Description:
Chains A, B: This is Lysosomal Pro-X carboxypeptidase. Chains A, B: Residues 1-17 form the signal peptide. Chains A, B: Its EC number is 3.4.16.2. Two copies of one chain form a homodimer. Chain A is α/β, with parallel strands linked by helices. Chain A has helices at 67-72, 75-84, 110-113, 118-133, 149-160, 184-196, 200-215, 219-228, 238-257, 274-284, 290-305, 318-321, 323-334, 355-366, 375-380, 437-460, 464-477, and strands at 21-28, 39-47, 57-61, 87-91, 142-147, 167-171, 391-396, 414-419. Chain A has an eight-stranded mixed beta sheet with strand order 1-2-4-3-5-6-7-8, sandwiched between helices. The first copy, chain A, folds into two domains: 21-179 and 378-468, Alpha/Beta hydrolase fold, catalytic domain (Rossmann fold); 196-324, CATH 1.20.120.980. The longest helix of chain A has 24 residues, at 437-460. Chains A and B meet through helix 3 and helix 4 of A and helix 3 and helix 4 of B.
Amino acid sequence: xxxxVTLVLFLCHNIWxxxxxxxxxxxxxxxxxxxxxxxxxxxYLINDTFWTNDGPIFFYTGNEGTVENFxxxxxxxxxxxxxxxxxxxxxEHRYYGExxxxxxxxxxxxxxxxxxxxxxxxxxxxxxxxxxQTMSLEKVPVIAFxxxxxxxxxxxxxxxxxxSVVGAIxxxxxxxxxxxxxxxxxxxxxxxxxxxxxxxxPLLITKSWTALRNISESPEGKAWLSDAWQLCSPLETSAxxxxxxxxxxxxxxxxxxxxxxxxxxxxxPLPPFPVKTFCSQLxxxxxxxxxxxxxxxxxxxxxxxxxxxxxxCNKINQTAEALGEEGWYFQAxxxxxxxxxxxxxxxFENDPWDYGKYAxxxxxxxxxxQTHPELPVLxxxxxxxxxxxxxxxxxxxxDPWSSGGVLKNVSESVVSVIIPDxxxxxxxxxGNKDDPETVIEARQFHVDNIKxxxxxxxxxxxxxxxxxxxxxxxxxxx
Amino acid sequence: xxxxVTLVLFLCHNIWxxxxxxxxxxxxxxxxxxxxxxxxxxxYLINDTFWTNDGPIFFYTGNEGTVENFxxxxxxxxxxxxxxxxxxxxxEHRYYGExxxxxxxxxxxxxxxxxxxxxxxxxxxxxxxxxxQTMSLEKVPVIAFxxxxxxxxxxxxxxxxxxSVVGAIxxxxxxxxxxxxxxxxxxxxxxxxxxxxxxxxPLLITKSWTALRNISESPEGKAWLSDAWQLCSPLETSAxxxxxxxxxxxxxxxxxxxxxxxxxxxxxPLPPFPVKTFCSQLxxxxxxxxxxxxxxxxxxxxxxxxxxxxxxCNKINQTAEALGEEGWYFQAxxxxxxxxxxxxxxxFENDPWDYGKYAxxxxxxxxxxQTHPELPVLxxxxxxxxxxxxxxxxxxxxDPWSSGGVLKNVSESVVSVIIPDxxxxxxxxxGNKDDPETVIEARQFHVDNIKxxxxxxxxxxxxxxxxxxxxxxxxxxx
Lengths: 478, 478
């Protein structure tokens, strides 16, 4: 059973290409009790190049990773900031990047890591927004942006704190994953591989699990496989084999998530349409038995593991080493419990959802008993969000996380935009000449909604003149 | 400076006249961190006499006191439950009544009392509602009710957890008191006394402060005053005099709050229109100097202190002894910081608002530094609540707390109902033959809104048939 599927991984570090200043803001460790007064520094990135001091604030609600990664992969905010005269801010999520409440000790015990919850993160953002408002003479409208878990946070920020943000662009935000049938996620992944080239591709993957298990049964097989897949540490135990299976499975998922139409370096340096490239290579290989299948897979996986041709060997426990993942592992064990399973009909090895086993693994790792797995649904309302307002949920149908996304309009102002051929929050990325028309349309939809929310803000605050100015500017500029 | 004005006091214990079972529900001590798994038992009262298992739940969000007191003084819920086939529930607020997380130690240190926050209380209610829902086969609509701080909680419950409650009746809920000019509260109290009989009454009260101070300067004066006002412990120090002034001032406020048109025992056993009775007696007295004024006041105060003619002497530190007040004192020091002051123009002794002094008194008492006094405004949005829905705010204009109330419609479904001659949440009380027409109209307004919310609930859940049944029943019964 997969313990948790990481929403976003950051294994590679880009050279940053957007401009911003790095700043820090002191936040309370615990916003919801008065048992202590501890504080820590939350990192945020800020760019005021386009800001006119009375323009809106574009606020990215950081998710599970170093905030620079989100800034670098959310070019959309920079692209549209000039036409809105907007201040651009990316806030780091507590317990990720540099925003560690207890420094290196942040993960050592429940009394340290226990404050890693979405509610506390939202309260951090509210306080930071309140501080940013002091940069203007009068209150300005704030738009929340976020992708993946960051998109969940953006939508929840609007739901819980509508006085702080006038609206939210929630891209690929699986807020309903808690209640989605556990098999849906891997079904979508399978569909991505089915539609990439031909059905042969997922069929070969389906066969690969048995092949891998057969081969890795014997010590010789383990040695052969370690060599064939260029592992840094040879497989020795059956636990190593499980790690390998998990690593391989995660790469298949990740390639679907970042199956963008142009070369990116979001999760790993990748060619355009990596799934298509992977499947083309795999289906063209001469496969006659388990070994030739596994060998062909190993070669094809290099599209993900070694696109830059600089990787000398594969670290199959790589993901577990990255600090950001420790935090997400904790969150997946406590609040973000999203049931997932593989069944007959998808291309993955069968793997049932077993909450008891999941919970006991979590307890072993963190010493925390989650006695209220219904917590996120009660806290954020589950599927009953019709009382919310001013949220755009965007989803690519080829994004596995669309299985937990809001795919239909919920109300007049809680609306959905679908990108049929889109991967994981592609709409938040900067414009690219290879963007499909559907992505461009989704971005226009975002811009139209942001305009509407800003106009509403000025209308309600009775600033007719400014409202007219905004209106004019936008019509003229876009 | 008054440290805090208690919203509701319970000095007298009624013989309970409504039927309910007393139950307990286990809740998490801390809903917003995973630092510990501690739980405690929250008390609630439940009456299912009128419930049909698919009827709605009427849920009172308990405030600062033993929950039975709220049940006894919220007869409106019992009055209308039969026509809605409703389950009636009163939930106790954590740290009041029997719902003490650490028993008798609940108030001893920040690490004990620190979990007394409105956010934690709301999360308790959400969990209890979730549990109550399991009593029905299918989800039923829940209506939140509350008066005073309980009304604030009811409205916040709807704002923060709209999936848990379909709407809220928030009676005399001063959710804007945090941002109200500090003098407004005592201005309203003064108006109540002005309109009771004649302007002479507040003028005499205005003079009384100097009279009390003059008399109590000397030891002989203190002795005379102790005797004249029948104090249990004679005044000895200047601190005792301050306590007396505070006690007298609080009675004046309390009489305004419960200035009901019929005899009640909410804060103390009282005649109908206690302020009128008090002012009539005071203005008819033969007042020629400080002593005769103070003597006349002492006599008139017996309307509040000794209406039952069973009080042998007055305990002027009475309010500080009641357990419920310890909790409210803490809340007033941490979250519920509502600036209050008396100025020229009201009938009280001048008393400026000094947050620094207030905060240092709070720190001395609780060892807690409130570094974020803006907390409640950020947490609940302050005056920006137009994104909320399905809340009725009712306010009596002769209720001092109306100074912080929502007195105008905010949106189509966040609406205000004014009871011009109403005192503190009179509309939540059971029907009385002496109810003025305005109170009856306010209650009808509540019923109409509750019906609308329930119909919306069934409409959205696609249960047309049930929706029709509800509609028919209500039209027929009301």
